[in-house]
UniProtKB/TrEMBL annotation:
GO terms for biological process: mitochondrial electron transport, succinate to ubiquinone; tricarboxylic acid cycle. It comes from Bifiguratus adelaidae. Belongs to the CybS family. This is Succinate dehydrogenase [ubiquinone] cytochrome b small subunit. The lineage of its organism: Eukaryota, Fungi, Fungi incertae sedis, Mucoromycota, Mucoromycotina. InterPro entries: CybS, SQR/QFR_C/D. Heme b binds at residue 105. One of its GO terms (molecular function) is metal ion binding. A ubiquinone binds at residue 117.
Amino acid sequence: MATRLATPQQLSAVLNRAARQKGALAFHTGRVLGVQSSKTVFARAAVPATPTTVAVPEPNRVDGSFHWSFERGLSVALVPLISAQLIQGGAPVTDMLLGVVLPLHCHLGFDSCITDYFDERKSPVLNKLMTWTLRAATVGVLVGCYQINTHDVGLTEMVGRAWVA
């Protein structure tokens, strides 16, 4: 008569049953480490590909890694711009650069908040309203920074005066 070995699932079930009978809780419900298979198992799609499956979008300059790199570039550009303003004071070139980079940086941050909290699928009208409000506000801030830098004292001097006041 041939002896049949227990499968890993059967062994795990027996060990869990024994642990429950002794009053101990079985913390691990998977296979026992000593009897796990060393064979490589390749993952397969849980849902077969059909005409209704979602297609992978083409790379786009405003989505994904390109967008991520642009955001990081703006963030990194703010460090020397603000440092230069603190060291040398208000210079027209750095004031103008700061008047462009800072509003764009804030726009991308608020746009991420709108994308996260006002999902287009759940509330399409509110998403569009918030997005266009942000765009209008960003254009207004860019025009305001331009006006302050060209017809007034500049951003750095204005912040300095507001800080002292």
